[in-house]
UniProtKB/TrEMBL annotation:
Organism domain of life: Bacteria
Annotated ranges, domain 4'-phosphopantetheinyl transferase: 105-192
Statement: the UniProt record of this protein carries the keyword Electron transport: no
Regions annotated as coiled coil: none
A Pfam family it matches: ACPS
Any one GO molecular function term: holo-[acyl-carrier-protein] synthase activity
Protein name as it appears in the record: 4-phosphopantetheinyl transferase
InterPro entries from the UniProt entry: 4-PPantetheinyl_Trfase_dom (IPR008278), 4-PPantetheinyl_Trfase_dom_sf (IPR037143)
Keyword entries, A-Z: Transferase
Length: 212
């Protein structure tokens, strides 16, 4: 069972990361899907997507959940039937969940690629990154910022929120492994804690909403 890493965020919040290395046949073991999710699975043409989908069900089982405990709202945001908060992500051969009994959460995994240099202007003021030592460092930092904004968007769950104009991630240093962020939208603001880690040319970022 290739559980890659678990992280205890606090006593009520946890992250679990899976590295997909098994065959699809092996990933089916112990998994039973609802009719809705079976239909979703049947529509997946990518072998990678199908295996990611199944691996996430194994991650759920670590927390004593089954597929039927997971429901999606009209915006596609996942929820757990018992009221606990959840966020899900996958990128290539990595998948992850963050689950909390007490706070809204979001998570994102991204591969570190130079493609992000071409789209940076769409989600952050690129000028802020020109002081970094080299292109590799810029790619790393941009990937963290993108992952943070993606995680926050998953928490917020409202259409119309702009990564560039409404979500602000405070500057950080790599070694800190954390920063803070704010969403200002429709005259309202909300604050979040951000944590990140890097492994095998991937970046995982997860966010928790600060309580008022």
């Amino acid at each position: 069972m290739p559980l890659y890493k678990t992280i205890t965020v606090n006593k009520e919040t946890s992250v679990a990361i899976w590295k997909v290395e098994e065959s699809e046949e092996d990933l089916w073991k112990g998994i039973e899907l609802t009719d809705h999710c079976q239909n979703r699975f049947n529509g997946m043409k990518s072998d990678l997507h199908r295996k990611a989908f199944l691996s996430i069900r194994h991650l759920l089982s670590l927390y004593n959940y089954v597929d039927a405990d997971l429901v999606y709202d009209e915006n596609g945001k996942p929820h757990l039937k018992d009221g606990n908060f959840i966020s899900i992500t996958h990128s290539h051969n990595f998948t992850a969940v963050i689950i909390s009994a007490s706070e809204e959460v979001g998570i994102d995994i991204e591969m570190q690629r130079d493609k992000i240099l071409r789209i940076a202007h769409k989600f952050t003021p690129f000028e802020e990154y020109r002081t970094l030592a080299n292109t590799a460092a810029i790619i790393r930092k941009l990937t963290i910022v993108w992952g943070a904004k993606e995680s926050l968007y998953k928490i917020y769950g409202h259409r119309g929120v702009s990564f560039l104009h409404h979500i602000n991630v405070q500057d950080f240093i790599f070694n800190a492994g954390r920063t803070t962020a704010q969403i200002i939208f429709n005259g309202e603001s909300s604050d979040y804690g951000i944590k990140f880690l890097e492994f095998e040319n991937f970046t995982c970022v997860y966010a928790t909403k600060n309580k008022n």
